[in-house]
Amino acid sequence: MSGIAILAIDGPSASGKGSVAQRVAEALGFAYLDSGALYRLTALAAQEAGIDWSDEQGLAQIAQSLDVRFEKDLTFLGGQDVSGLIRSEVVGAGASKVAAFAAVRQALLARQRNFAVAPGLVADGRDMGSVVFPGARLKIFLTATATVRAERRYQQLIARGESADLVAITRDLQSRDERDAARKEAPLRQWDDALLLETSQLSLDQVVECVLSWWKTRTET
Ligand code: CDP
Ligand code: CDP
Questions:
Q1: Whose CA is nearest to atom 10 of ligand 2?
Q2: 3-state helix, strand, coil in the chain (%, to 5)
Q3: Radius of gyration of the chain from its Cα atoms, rounded to whole angstroms
Q4: What is the dihedral of CA 113, 114, 115, 120, to 10 degrees?
Q5: Closest ligand to 143 CA?
Q6: Is the reported ipTM for this assembly greater than 0.90?
Q7: Which residues of 23-54 are buried (b: 16+ CB within 10 A; e: fewer)?
Q8: What 3-state DSSP class applies to 181?
Q9: What residue ranges define each of the domains in the chain, with the CATH number in brackets?
Q10: 119 C-alpha vs ligand 2 centroid, how far in Å?
Q11: Element (H, E) at 170
Q12: What is the tens place of the pLDDT at every residue in 29-49?
């Protein structure tokens, strides 16, 4: 893993991690890891198997044996296309609950590290720079105000033709961020070795440009 270039992007919900990480990975010709999808898939698979989101050992077994396939923009669980299903707020909240358990995080660790292939990987989540890839060449903490993030999520749902309620989105997003930041295991936090990128006033293009220029500077020194 040590010879493979890793760019870690962590941050709160709807800060733009996924959109930025995918575009940066494409520009650099790197693989991409959406670590949040694995927690969402664990929550969904548990729900389908009738395992409670509070049953740590049951959840860890589910996480360990996830039958997942990522194919372009699609995500398959046991052969079923669950790309839309895992993006729901209910599954997002479930992901945040199951992600608080040490045994679940441990069960997903090796699977995440397996995404690191030459020439490099862009990984997004909450603990990419702190736990999963502590040796990452560049670590970024991507954020924006809660109001801006809720508005982004709202616009994203509207663009997909889904119904959206800005008040409910704001409430869900805040309670998920609070849970993610307060937990003992891999809490959501900007660590000392991560560069802060506050994106409230920036377009997606501007953020991607900034990340690529930081990457260039970091890899040239
Ligand atoms: O992965 P994460 O939840 O952090 O965010 P996302 O799903 O990648 O982004 C949420 C939405 O914000 C997407 O529709 C992006 O196009 C949009 N957006 C952004 O990501 N960055 C900006 N600077 C502006 C908008
Ligand atoms: O796209 P968004 O930022 O809203 O969520 P996500 O990245 O898909 O993550 C869903 C949930 O999984 C988060 O609220 C976290 O609780 C958890 N997660 C985590 O604990 N560690 C990660 N590396 C990624 C996600």
A1: 36
A2: 50, 15, 30
A3: 17
A4: 80
A5: 1
A6: yes
A7: bbbeebebbbbbbbbbbbbbbbbbbeeebebe
A8: helix
A9: 5-216 (3.40.50.300)
A10: 25
A11: helix 166-182
A12: 999 999 999 999 999 999 999
